[in-house]
Design brief:
alpha+beta; Aminopeptidase; 7 strands; disordered C terminus
């Protein structure tokens, strides 16, 4: 069961440092699933250094961020979402907590639809998107998921649950 993390302080520069550290701790399979390539640490640092998310949710264990969800707002109440969980914490509900809380937070920010891009073998994200009523388009080894947050029943239930008991923290 995911812990109840504390809110992590910071701004964009702090988020970028947290993302860089988190990305480096991802194993090869997690890197493939998140970035659709097993990127070297130098490339992951570049991605983190250039990231400009509107919000970052994180789960912290033993003083370090082990899972993140990034929301990048676009136009027309739409956002792109990126999510990753360190290998040792996969299959324990961390990704689900980030996903559901992230969709609820996106909706609070005025986002009505969201896209996620991931490797086709990422069965965890596939399952989460399906449970949210999302649509998945597969092109070879890559997938693109579309979620209508307003019509997502599991998202609406979670939005109420998030107000009662936070499972993730907002990095701010």
């Amino acid at each position: 069961m995911p812990p109840n993390p504390d809110v992590l302080p910071g701004e964009l520069a702090d988020w970028r440092r947290a993302l860089a550290k988190h990305y480096r701790r991802l194993g090869s399979t997690s890197r493939q699933q998140r970035f659709m390539s097993v990127l070297p640490n130098s490339s992951l640092k570049t991605i983190a250094d250039r990231a400009s998310p509107d919000i970052v949710l994180g789960i912290e264990v033993d003083g370090r961020v082990v899972g993140v969800l990034e929301i990048f707002k676009g136009e027309d109440a739409h956002a792109e979402i990126g999510i990753s969980v360190e290998d040792a914490y996969q299959g324990k509900g961390f990704g689900k907590a980030l996903f559901l809380d992230g969709l609820a937070k996106a909706e609070q920010l005025g986002v009505r639809t969201a896209d996620l891009y991931f490797a086709s073998e990422n069965l965890g994200i596939r399952s989460l998107v399906s449970s949210a009523g999302g649509e998945i388009l597969q092109r070879g080894a890559e997938c693109e998921a579309h979620i209508d947050i307003a019509r997502c029943k599991v998202c609406q239930k979670n939005a109420r649950d998030v107000q009662r008991a936070g499972t993730v923290c907002v990095l701010h």
